[in-house]
Amino acid sequence: MLLVDSAQTVDPTTGSFSIPVPLDAIQTLSVDKAPYSAEYGGFSGGLTSIETKPPSSSWNYGVMDFIPGARFKDGHIAGISGFTPRLFFGGPLLKDKLYFLEAFTYDVNKNAVRGLAWPNDETKRQGFNTLTSLQAVLSPQHLLSVTLNGFSSRRQFADINALVPETASADDGQRGVSIGANDSYQFNSGGLLSTIVRYTRFDSDAYGQGPEDMLITPEGWGGNFFDTWTRASSQFELRPLYQSPSKEWWGRHQIKVGLDFSHRSFDGTDHSHPIDLLQQDGILAEQIDFEGDGRLRARDTAVAEFVQDHWMINDRLALDLGGRLSSESIGRSAAFAPRVGLVYALSGDRKTILRAGAGIFYDRASLLAADFLSNPTRVESFYDETGTLVNSLALQNAYVAMIPGRGFVQTGSILDTSPRNSTWNLEVDREVSRKAVVRVSYLYSQTQNLDIVTPVAAASGAPALLGLADTGSSHYYELETTLHYRPSERSFLNISYVKSRARGGLNTVSDVFVPFEQPVIRPDVSGTLAQDVPNRVVGWGTFSLPWNVTLSPVVDVHSGLPYSDVDALQNYVGLPNGQRFPEFFSFDLKVYKEFQLHLPFLGKKKLRFGVYTINLTNHSNILDVYNNVDSPYFGHFVGFQHRVNGFVIDAVN
CA 272 to CA 294: how far, in whole Å? Predict the structure, then answer.
């Protein structure tokens, strides 16, 4: 889940982080793997929170990245690689009463994809995002903030790689607006009442490059991408929260009580043209066609009540105790999520801190699952080695349930559940010196009732099905050790090692339909997840050097990502995600210097000039592989990542 100013800010249909916020409007960004406060809900993984900057009491402005980057080919400029100018300005409209902030980003980005021939080797993105903020001081105790976040973006050739040329790729776009208000009133007793209201409109679409059949061969994709969809979605959220003044009873208590109401909806269309799976000699092995008008529509209303107590037992021990009761119109009718967190100073000098927690989390039901039956029906036709039709069957979209001894069986109604996650963690921080802190932590997370999509073979007297079931699950653990070292006030270094494992079902709704529908849907299996990285070492820091020069290095070394071997029909060969890319290594570096300028009529200004390089050592990090066992190139890696250089210029007051 992504929260912006404590309100949900995601695609209402898919839950994706698709609504951008201008960088210069962000005051803080935090990622919490285990957010145990009961005020948070509607997700089964981590929580990302963004707080935007309040308008300033004095006028200020800034202009950043206003020089475009060039793409070079054979030593000559071959066009613009990127242009992302940013600006912000704001200040008081009415002294001590009304304040204003505007932040705007325009984005043109062209990323070269290794393994394809120039000039047909670029993913292109163009768009903008803007945030307007107004803050009114209604009284010394009463503050009203209103934000308007507008955005529009389009990607061309969004999913190309060394095995997917531009002609076989898809374009996608998104546009919309999110408007929110936060009314905060502090009572004389010290209690605080905050009421958050947000409305989001989010429209999106995707389509291929033409009407030709999509081709899947042992060497990659050809033809034109098969699926075209449009979605018009919206969400309304109301979130009142009361925070009580501190109460003394066996320590100090601060209690939060609140309500979270949301309504989501989407209307859309989905149309597809045939997919041809070819043998190595070019003969048709399977064709997938589609039937139905593909008109989609879903609605969901969710209500949650929560209570949270931050209990300071003494100056060394604090507990967070809470519970959240939620219900959804297309998910669970009632779900209770208890949470508990603990912070304890193990020593009197408070140099060793223990943190622990455990909790239950319930995700939102997927709107894509709510109208699954209305998706186009897949019709699969199979051919022998001579190209002669052998069999044809239609996979009827259906909700299915797992019955012991019978397998998946069709049910007559939508699934009345939503993903349920249980997470616990343990962490110890030790201050080993005034400049160094060591952290060791362990986290375990398990999710059940994930919606998965899987073909179901025809039973006696029954049709073949493309089933949606709530039997998916996943589990993840990680052991992390981190050193934080701060040699001076303006310099720091972090080094972190993470040992982890991620396993689960490979056919969740988001895996199959987001961001683009998978052309071939295999039977669901459990295995290593695509994002599994067993070993990772990351180092990053900022070092202040003489003459106002700052050095910022990042080093990332981790295990290669997993992938699967497949045959001509895209069936798994061997263990799903049983293969791995070679180890990844990247050393990135940014160096910048600040200058003080005195400009006529503008006064004293600051100019920051920087140069950066990504993958400084030019390590050949592999992006793609010929994973089809019928290909003569089977097992060959392609699409190597190379070094990227650039510079930035920022001007601020």
Answer: 9
Per residue, the 3-state secondary structure of 309-344, as one string, reads: EEEECCCCEEEEEEEEEEEECCCCCCEEEEEEEEEE
Share of the chain above pLDDT 90, in %: 76
Q: What is the 3-state secondary structure (H, E, C) of 407-424?
A: EEEECCCCCCCCCEEEEE
Read off the pLDDT band of 337 (50, 70, 90): very high
Burial of 349 (0-12, 13-18, 19+ CB in 10 A): exposed
The pLDDT tens digits for 480-525 are 999 999 998 889 999 999 999 999 999 999 999 999 999 999 999 9
Note the helical H segments in 188-228: none
Is residue 459 scored above 90 in pLDDT? no
User: What digits encode the pLDDT tens for the residues 462-476?
Assistant: 789 999 999 999 999
Q: Which helix (H) or strand (E) holds 81?
A: strand 76-83
196: nearest Cα among 173, 179, 177: 179
In angstroms, the CA 222 to CA 277 distance is 10
User: What are the structure tokens assigned to 307, written together?
Assistant: 């209570």
- DSSP character at residue 530: T
Please check whether residue 422 is in contact with residue 363, taking contact to mean a CB–CB distance below 8 angstroms.
no
Cα 393 to the center of its chain, rounded Å: 36
Task: Give every CB contact of residue 410 below 8 A, 6+ residues apart in sequence.
Answer: 398, 399, 400, 456, 462, 465, 467
Look up tokens 């503008």; give the residue.
Answer: 602
The model's pTM: 0.90
Q: Give the whole-angstrom CA distance, residue 292 versus residue 548.
A: 64
CA distance 528 to 526: 7
